[in-house]
Structures are given as C-alpha cells and as structure tokens.
Amino acid sequence: MTAGTDVGQLGRLLRDAREAAGISQQELARRCGVCQGSLSGYERGTRVPRLEQVGRILAGLGRQLRLETEPLWADVDRAIDAAAALSLDERLGQLRVRPLELLAAIGDPPCVMAGLCAAALLGAPVPVAAMDLVLPTDDEVLERFTRWATRRGRRWSDRWRQYGFGPPDPREGSDALGYDCDCRRCGWPTTRSRPVSSIGCGSD
Q1: Which residues on adjacent β-strands are paired with residue 112?
Q2: 101: number of Cβ within 10 Å
Q3: Nearest Cα to 78, choosing from 125, 129, 17?
C-alpha cells in the first residue's frame, strides 16, 4: 500500500467491514461514539482517522485492526500478477478502458496510444488506470478530440489544481502541451493526451 493510496484503502476497509456486518453508518456511529459525518468522511477517504479511532470503529463491528509490513512495491507486484491472470479483453473491460472507441472517434490522421494502455494492448499484464494518447497537431484531429473530451470529462487545471477549470481544447491553456482529462463520471479512466508535430510509424 503506497502513501498516496493509504486513505482510500483504509476507507474501503472500513466501509466493507460495516457492510459485511449489515449495519448502517448511523448505527455504527452510535456503537463506537463517532460522529456519523466523520464516519462517512473516513469511508469516502476525505478524512483521515487516527489509529485509535479506527480501533473504536472496528470494535463496534466486532473486529480489530492488525498492522504488518511488506516489501516495497509488493502491491504493484500483486496488481501485475492479478492482471496477468486475465485476458486482454477482460483487463480492458474490467477497467472500462476503450482505446479503440476513442481512436475511432478521433479518426484520421492516425493517433498513437502510449503508456501502460499501449503495453496492455500489446499483451503486457499491466494494470491500466489511464489512457495516454499522442495526437498530431492537426486542427481537424484536435477539434474532434476536443468534442470527445468535452462530452466525456473535465480537463485538469494546473492553475487551480483540480478538474473542471481548464479549457477543453488541448491547444489552449498554460498546460497546452499536455491534457489530463478526468472522464470517470462517464465510466472512463483519466485520459492524458500530448500533441506533437508529427507521428512516425516504423516498419519494423
């Protein structure tokens, strides 16, 4: 478990334990003496509980917390092993990554899928959380991508450090060389694009 995912994983652990016990947040909050609003925040990962609070919450479920260590990046190894056990269609379907649909929506001239998504398309057993796309700096292609991205998600803004404030056109904005689009509200992962002057396709 990495530092960036600790809070989210802990929230899922608390929520899963409560749901497995079949009780509501209100009932659990009453049992363990924690405000329901705080409990909701812990489960959603927007608030960070102290260890003693985690212990009280789990005690209200008849559970206890056990801490242990593991080798660094062991969670990455597990994710790769889990991905290796799935077929390519299963991996992309499970993660709702539809790169071929995206490429079809953009059309010609050709674009290039990059990063882990490209590796998965080539059969590598890697977990895919985002689509990385290299776009030619062709006005028509960028217009089609802009229309697709506007329907699917919200652009990341470097200035405001959140999604929803960046211009939809990847040619605009202070971060014009990169486009990080949060499409999760439509069931898609983050899509990152980078316009380049030309895209070469090797013959070997």
Answers
A1: 134
A2: 11
A3: 125
CA–CA distance, 32 with 17 (Å, rounded to integer)? 14
**Strand pairing category for 190-196 and 130-136:** parallel
The answer, yes or no, to whether the previous bond of 110 is cis (omega within 30 of 0) is no
How confident is the model at residue 79, as a pLDDT? Answer: 79
Rounded Cα distance, 108 and 13, in Å: 45
Residue found by looking up tokens 């290299």 in the block? 134
Q: At what angle do helices 36-44 and 25-32 cross, to 10 degrees?
A: 110
The DSSP bridge pattern shows strands 112-114 and 130-136 to be antiparallel
Residue with tokens 């790769």: 80
Residue 5 has pLDDT above 70, yes or no: no
Average pLDDT over residues 129-152: 77
